[in-house]
Amino acid sequence: MQFEEIKSKIVVALDVKTLEEAKHLVDELKDYTGTFKVGLQLYCAFGNEIVDYIKGQNANFFLDVKLMDIPNTVAGAANSLVSRGASFFNVHTLGGVEMMRAAKKAADEINPETIVLGVTVLTSISDEILQNEIKVNENASDYALYLAGLAKEAGLTGVVASAHEAKRIKEKLGADFKVLCPGIRPEYTSVDDQKRVATPKFAIGEGADWIVLGRAITKAENPKEAMKKVFEELK
Ligand code: C5P
Hints:
Layout: H1 3-9, E1 10-13, H2 19-29, E2 35-39, H3 40-56, E3 60-67, H4 71-83, E4 88-92, H5 97-110, E5 115-119, H6 127-133, H7 140-153, E6 158-160, H8 163-173, E7 178-181, H9 200-205, E8 210-213, H10 215-218, H11 223-234
Parallel strand pairs: 1-2, 1-8, 2-3, 3-4, 4-5, 5-6, 6-7, 7-8
The structure holds cytidine-5'-monophosphate.
Cytidine-5'-monophosphate is lined by residues 13, 15, 39, 122-123, 160, 182-184, 192, 194, 212, 214-216.
């Protein structure tokens, strides 16, 4: 892959506590990523500031806010996020098809290019929790595939899923249905609290449209050098 193609597939997760740290990472990494992911921690604390800063650097941002509420409320939130300039955001597939459709429709009314992704089963939910606590009588992987089908039915752009499910999702729902994969770790980095990790190369090979790079890059001694190594791996 060429540099620009790799760059377009990389999403950097800005999971940091302070605005200064987030801005520093944006400065360091903006030449190597198509999109910065702003999660709930940063968005709740510094939503406007960080979004304006990323926009000011001509980078895209993905608001990982995992919306779930009644369709009308989610549509209103989607309207606000896209009006603010988000090129990506996500909703919980568990909110149902009508809710997802409302989110996509509201986003499309402002910018039809907006990427709206569905979160299927959180990676923190094991088969045991799903079956014994939430009372869903399926394994997490099969259930994620089922929920991805609902996201497709609702007209979402794609889903967030582990690299280990990317191929099954693409096979079932089509190559155009996008998959964003978190839990990415180059071989030489620590797994942290993630359970089902994959290397950048494996994830892209399985069909991931985007890979989320978080701590493997942001906690590295030199984030830019760590990013360059990922580019080497994917070249
Ligand atoms: O640091 P790390 O690479 O583990 O970061 C992964 C990012 O992707 C975090 O922001 C995390 O919240 C997010 N994510 C995830 N698993 C999901 C959905 C989102 O790790 N299923």
